[in-house]
Amino acid sequence: MSIETLSRRGFLMASAVAYAIPSLAWAAADAYAASPFRKLTDADWKQRLPPASYGVLRHEDTERPGTSPLLNEHRKGTFACLGCGLPLFKSEWKFESGTGWPSFYTAIPGALSKKMDLAIGVPRTEYHCAQCLGHQGHVFDDGPKPTGLRYCNNGVALRFIAA
Questions:
Q1: In the annotation, is 129 catalytic?
Q2: Catalytic one among 81, 129, 132, 152?
Q3: Is the separation of the CB atoms in 89 and 78 below 8 Å?
Q4: Measured between alpha carbons, how far is residue 138 from residues 38, 49, 123, 124, 150 in Å?
């Protein structure tokens, strides 16, 4: 074989590897890519969820502050996504933020995905359930120690599971 053939082959192999690596990294980073919840249609979600929960989880609405019964939930347990049941927060991470929404200073590792939200003209970090991609709320950097974070969650997007 000529050097030109080896160079072309090497170039093609390197190109194929370079093309595949981001796809492999994305698949590895998205542990829930094959989740059956991601295959549900909007009509399926509308049928499965109460109207307020459907608006928040599937269309990024926000519930009115102070209306969630989960604000006063102080028992030991887990807060899970109402859409798919994935555990998102432990009760010991909940704190009284005074905002009118259930707030947590950290989340279960791998349970949330985040994206930039510019809907109100100010950059905010929005987070979703990693399994069903249901909108949960926004995370801010004004929370308590040890993280300094405030995961401000819509109560209608959660269900509480007592320990």
A1: no
A2: 152
A3: yes
A4: 21, 21, 11, 7, 8
